[in-house]
Please model this.
Amino acid sequence: MRRLPLVMVCAALLLAITASSMAAAPAKLTVWAMGAEAQKIGQMTAKFEKANPGIRVTVQAIPWSAAHDKIITAVAGGTGPDVAQMGTTWMAEFGSIGVFEELSRYISKSKAVEKGQFFPGSWGTCVVVGKVYGIPWYVDTRALFYRTDLLAAKGFKQAPRTWEELRAAAVALAADGGFGMALSTNNYQEFMPFVWQNGGRILDEKGRPAVTEPEFIEALDFYAKLFHDKLAPIDSGGTDLFQEFAKGTMPMYFSGPWMINLTNEQVPEIAGKWSVAVCPKKKARTSFVGGCNLVVFRDSKNKDAAWRFIEFMSDAGNQLEWFGVSGCLPAAKASWDAAELSGNPMMAVFREQLDDAQAPENVPQWAQIEAAIQRRVQEACYGKKTAAEAARALEADIKAIR
Model:
């Protein structure tokens, strides 16, 4: 019996050591990142771990081509990550079926994340039926790339500011034997800004198709006539846009900020002969906004750690650092005050465009609607249907989808 106190002391010490060891074990956070971001995010996760020594991050690289199916498989098997990079057009599809954690309660207590710090169009991609399922990570938008020298030679002292000026500039530039601009017949990201600029939409407030409204039909008619009148190439598959831009045969096009460095690298001979401008206006200058958000999977066992990671990645300074690492545009508006962005005239154009940028309707069936839009727009561009006929066919498509 005299030995009992010693045994109890040893047992207590052992329990204390075990408890201490368990307490010291770091939380393990799994992050799914897609594409090129997966190869570059290590610098940010290392910085996060240094600031949060109780958390260890494992990044799993997922190819974009396999990401959608992998998410579905993970949901069915309960094998999802804690945090994932999510394309903006997938938010509604997965958010509506309960894949992601709703984040309002985290946001309400956070000093690092709040709606007003992000661009409105980007924040809107995170909201599904009034609930917040993600936080913007990075954004992209489209602006007008144009040859300043060739436009000046045709009497245009600045980039086209309106639809009328855009068409007039395209007519003048095409007179030299090339095209006035490059456009796609089957890319909704190029077409939809024209709809928004004219006050059009895909769905009304009740989720019914709105594509037979005059604003949509007018936008489609304007867009299709650029191809009918040979101001844009009807089939540009396989075209080297950089070379066509340099030769002046496609002297205007709409694209994102990544094209700035690529153009300088691919065709340095036209340095100083081109620039970028915000989209031409009809009723507005609205452009497309895309990018990626960060989400927490509902089945995560480490939701608090996952939220800390999202808060870290949402910090304006960290978003600016991520821009330096990846080239992805910050979703936090404060990041754009830094000289790296505000001091670059071309990047300043994209900053201005982000104030008038919109995402597609955040509905679960968007992927099917997107495919239908591209099919009907292409029919109008090829002259197989008038704009009104294509719009009515699209209306029937959407009714069948929804």
